[in-house]
Amino acid sequence: MRERIYFQIDAKFHRRRLDDFLFDKFYSLSKMYLREVIKEGNCEVNGYTGNSGVILKTKDFVEIEVDLDRETAMRPEKFPLDIVYEEDAFLLVNKPAGMLVHPTHRDKNGTLLNALSYYLNQEVLWRRNGEESGADDQSEIRNLKSEIVRPGLVHRLDKKTSGLILIAKTPRAHRVLSAHFERKLVEKKYLALVEGVVKADAGEISAPIGRFEETKHWNIKPDGKAAESRFRVIERYADTTLLELQPVTGRTNQLRIHCEYIGHPIVGDERRGGREFGRLCLHAYKLAFQHPTEYQRLEFEIDLPSDFIAGK
Predict the structure, then answer these.
(1) 102, 118, 164, 276: which has the highest count of C-beta atoms within 10 A?
(2) From 137, 158, 201, 303, the catalytic residue
């Protein structure tokens, strides 16, 4: 069901585009959906139908009609999470291999965001369920809905990749941390078990990555976007090597593609030449970033999964 929601622009959003403002206010709704709302004429600025590029000014009035049920991240599901660290502004989760980060058109349940929506809102959900089953006061139900913490995705991991993922708990933290990722102020490192014995102790891989429309497949493409990864050997085994990988750029499937490119596909990555294994042996083990409100540098590391090294 659609709801009409009103905002008055404060100084913080002066000179911001309308679409950027809405992305900030409704960060658990998809950007595509919000753009559709604007395009369909369901968003007004000072009483006039707005467009995505309208520049807002302090004290402007924005009125929008949105379907908050489209917030797929708000469908709570109770199942265990490995919380590495948590405070008021954000939390870090160790995502298992095989779990989607967010719902898709095909998979709407069982994702990390579904679980986080339950974890972050257990008390509010309990209170809201009580109101919805026993009260007619819809304003109280709306007030409870407004208290819900919407988990904000700052970055993503592939379904098959395990490891650290950072989740914002407030709009401000989401905005600040997202900006830090865009400005490359965040250090991300992975561990990967790859096929064969890598001879060089360390090196860089630079090869452009693009999408082949006919196969819908991402791979090395001469006219693709520049992509760079760094590697360092951690340990060599009989026919595999444990590498530390650091993506300098952030292209789709970059680490998997670059490992295949140098002749050492990741164990479990059958599509790219890796042996059959119970999981993809790629694990985001280290994340370093600036605190979103206090701005000191934070650094987190987690252990290698027990099932991961069995592939050596």
Answers:
(1) 164
(2) 158
